[in-house]
Design brief:
single chain; mainly beta; 36 strands; globular
């Protein structure tokens, strides 16, 4: 077992300390990847000394992982093999002991791992070739694999796999399969000028939206493949997913029971809302921006190269706009978290009603319930903060690594790639008293 790497006698420099309010944050899955790319290390200081430390559990192997994923009781890693067949080694590390559970070679380059806790199935897939392998998470046994060309996995959750295979002439084959056996539940050919799902955290999507090039769409039940409704999205599909300044743009997003279309046509931007189950038009509004639409709690946030526009989801009315803001999403029930600046984005706490800055946090990395920040005095040290029952943030320990970029959190386990190479795992006290 690796030795611990925290020093709870250390406290942040006095000049970094700053009082803060309650911090309760859930990051939408649809924006998690964008946040990791945009932000650096957290420079926000702690308000109080730590009440309890963190435990270092594992240093997984002697080289960087090509991919890793956490489950409730394990870390799974994949590493590139040094052989002419690009064979990868997939390993399970048991938590909290840190012991190696099993190691399995796969005859493919594994560059992405996904774990379905419900079925106990681990999926490894390649980035450059159509190879997907499904393993038993407990034993490492290979359950089944798929090598269908032009195929991607849209979702793995709740014991099922939703797969998409591109056909000719903007047609695609959708398949739903059993995660442990690969047995086919249903399949259906659909138009795929646009194809998307209603996103659900740790659960299979309930609906799939497919549209042809003229905007005629159908909504499928993801459980059995049946058609729930058909309708007209009133747009022409095409290569319009270009959000450079002034360019025509078309983007589609679904949140809850609503489908949103963000569009810029000849300089005029609109946002349109459809009822997802019926594809009935709810409203269309002129807005000042077109771009990615994010669920901001009681509001919608539209990000474009020049800033963020926040609108009311009931009618599309613009609530406020902040130029220079690159991203915004819910921070807690009363605040938005935004990022300002291009080279080194700075995190801001924003008033949802007005867009006013409530607090500047510096360059922030945030995970659900946990803040990570770089020590400004000692390079290569990262402070870890969590929220206590009283709502205040507290330092619980430090990581002797400068690489929280790409960290993931599941339950109380925090896993991070590190500058030294091996993936590290710590246990974080999420419930302070």
């Amino acid at each position: 077992m690796a030795t611990g790497i925290i020093d709870l006698d250390l406290t942040p420099p006095e000049q970094q300390r700053e009082a803060r309010g309650a911090w309760r944050f859930t990051l939408p899955r649809s924006v998690l990847a964008g946040v990791v790319v945009l932000v650096g290390l957290l420079t926000l200081g702690a308000s109080l000394p730590p009440r309890r430390g963190i435990d270092h559990l594992l240093s997984a192997g002697g080289q960087p992982a090509a991919a890793f994923v956490l489950s409730d009781d394990a870390l799974f890693t994949a590493s590139f093999g040094n052989n002419p067949n690009s064979e990868s080694a997939v390993r399970r590390w048991n938590l909290p002991t840190g012991e190696l559970g099993w190691a399995v070679p796969l005859p493919q380059n594994v560059q992405n791992l996904v774990y379905d806790q419900t079925a106990g199935v681990l999926m490894g897939r390649s980035a450059s070739e159509p190879k997907v392998t499904f393993l038993d998470g407990g034993t490492g046994q290979v359950l089944w694999h798929d090598e269908s060309p032009n195929t991607v996995v849209m979702a793995l959750a709740s014991g099922r796999v939703l797969m998409l295979t591109d056909l000719e002439q903007q047609r695609a084959l959708l398949r739903l399969l059993d995660a442990r056996t690969g047995r086919l539940a249903w399949s259906r050919e659909v138009d795929d000028a646009y194809l998307g799902t209603d996103e659900r955290t740790d659960a299979l999507p309930t609906r799939v939206v497919a549209a042809d090039a003229t905007g005629h769409a159908q909504v499928l039940d993801a459980g059995d493949g049946s058609v729930l409704t058909r309708g007209d999205l009133r747009v022409t599909m095409g290569a319009q997913y270009d959000n450079s300044p002034g360019a025509d743009y078309l983007g589609i997003s679904t949140f809850g029971d609503t489908l949103y279309i963000s569009r810029r046509d000849k300089g005029a931007a609109t946002l349109t809302a459809f009822e997802l189950d019926t594809l009935k038009l709810n409203w269309r509004a002129s807005v000042s921006a077109a771009g990615g639409v994010l669920d901001c709690g009681r509001l919608l946030c539209i990000g474009d190269p020049d800033g963020v526009t926040v609108v009311d989801p009931r009618d599309g009315r613009t609530v406020w706009r902040r130029p220079g803001l690159g991203l915004a999403y819910p921070y807690d029930g009363h605040t938005l978290l935004g990022y300002e600046g291009r080279d080194v984005p700075e995190a801001l706490l924003l008033d949802p009603a007005t867009g006013a800055v409530r607090q500047r946090l510096g360059n922030a990395v945030s995970l659900p319930g946990v803040l990570l920040r770089a020590d400004q005095v000692k390079l290569g040290r990262t402070w870890v903060e969590v929220a206590a029952a009283d709502g205040a943030l507290h330092v619980v320990g430090v990581l002797e690594t400068a690489a929280p970029f790409g960290c993931v959190l599941r339950g109380s386990y925090l896993a991070c790639p590190t500058s030294a190479g091996p993936t590290q795992v710590w246990q974080i006290p999420l419930h302070l008293t």
